[in-house]
Amino acid sequence: MLDTFLEKSACRTPINVNGDASVNQQTSFIEQLPKVELHLHIEGSLEPEMMFELAQRNGVSLPFSTPEEVKAAYQFTNLQSFLDIYYQGANVLIHERDFYDLTWAYLLRCQQDNVVHTEIFFDPQTHTDRGIAFDTVINGIYSALRDGEEKLGISSQIIMCFLRHLDEESAFDTLFEAMAHKDKIVGVGLDSSELGHPPEKFARVFRKALDEGFLTVAHAGEEGPVSNIYDSLELLKVSRIDHGVRCSDDENLLHALSNSKMPLTVCPLSNTKLKVFERMEDHNIVELLRRGLCVTINSDDPAYFGGYMNDNFKAVAESHQMSEQELAMFTRNAIMASFISEEQKSHLLDKLGQFVSHYHQDK
Ligand code: ADE
Ligand code: ZN
């Protein structure tokens, strides 16, 4: 029943035909579409303006003199060229209030973009390695998310990522710190430099995390080979693959992902900024959707990659011929792939169904 609303929908207008009316229509559909984000690094939502504000507040010196200079430095050639600058930016985050302010600013962007549920990553080691307490980080993020739920009606979950360029011992230490916060952290993930740091390096940490009741996800097949996708499924028992776009290199994997409905949290603007795809027209997300994979649209590190959720949706819709049903399918997939209760999923699917069926009638 929950799956049928898209078939029943009367909105069958192709929305990316040439012509202004249809472009406006597509923009407005995307803006009003309720959205769910499943791949967002909270440190990657640090806008240059806030970076400067926090640097001043905390007496941290930056190698830039204006936010414009920071923005001009965001010319990336690959994942590593981004990560180097991203870890540097995080140095301005020191106090619980900084993590609160960062998260609150992101939630206000969610409200603007009509994001109704979000599952955010944080990288504890980026902060604990600088002497910031784990509790400072998680408490700041968590209290902003609680306020987001109460004041903005945006629900959320937290996923803690291990930095894969660091060693297994550091990941275990981080997992042990997280044990005291099981009530706040729904799952663990794996991010940072994919090349040279395969999933098997963290197989034992993930086994322990699963034993402790955490769900698991992992960045795989962003820049790295399809073997990282296979190994994340096999060894890390992930519930979702973050990125996963390199799956197109392997026909057998495509079939397996389609049959299992294993979710991929795809980040279109991130992928073009980091040169995973040269142009948005070359991105495989629409092809994957049409082949029956459970693909979703997400913003990854929006302050660095030029846009939040609506920008990512628009970038995909502007460069591919898509119907409204297909756009809504990204939200449907994200609801199904989220780490919320069946009851909450049902509620969000209803909300989406209502939106799709009333969108044209109400205009
Ligand atoms: N950390 C933040 N953004 C990331 C990305 N796109 N890939 C890997 N690690 C990340
Ligand atoms: Zn990511």
UniProtKB/TrEMBL annotation:
Class of the enzyme per the UniProt entry, highest EC level: hydrolase
Required cofactor(s): Zn(2+)
Molecular function GO terms recorded: adenine deaminase activity; zinc ion binding
Signal peptide annotation: none
Enzyme nomenclature, EC number: 3.5.4.2
Catalytic activity from the UniProt record: adenine + H2O + H(+) = hypoxanthine + NH4(+)
Active site: E222 (proton donor)
Keyword Hydrolase: yes
Segments forming domain Adenosine deaminase: 34-352
Binding site for Zn(2+): H39, H41, H219, D300
Example of a GO biological process term: nucleotide metabolic process
Matches recorded under Pfam families: A_deaminase (PF00962)
Binding site for substrate: D301
Alphabetic keyword roster: Hydrolase, Metal-binding, Nucleotide metabolism, Zinc
Cofactor note: Binds 1 zinc ion per subunit.
Important for catalytic activity, annotated site positions: H243
GO CC annotation: cytosol
Family listed: Belongs to the metallo-dependent hydrolases superfamily. Adenosine and AMP deaminases family. Adenine deaminase type 2 subfamily.
Function: Catalyzes the hydrolytic deamination of adenine to hypoxanthine. Plays an important role in the purine salvage pathway and in nitrogen catabolism.
PANTHER family: ADENINE DEAMINASE
Protein name: Adenine deaminase
Organism of this sequence: Vibrio aquaticus
Record lineage: Bacteria, Pseudomonadati, Pseudomonadota, Gammaproteobacteria, Vibrionales
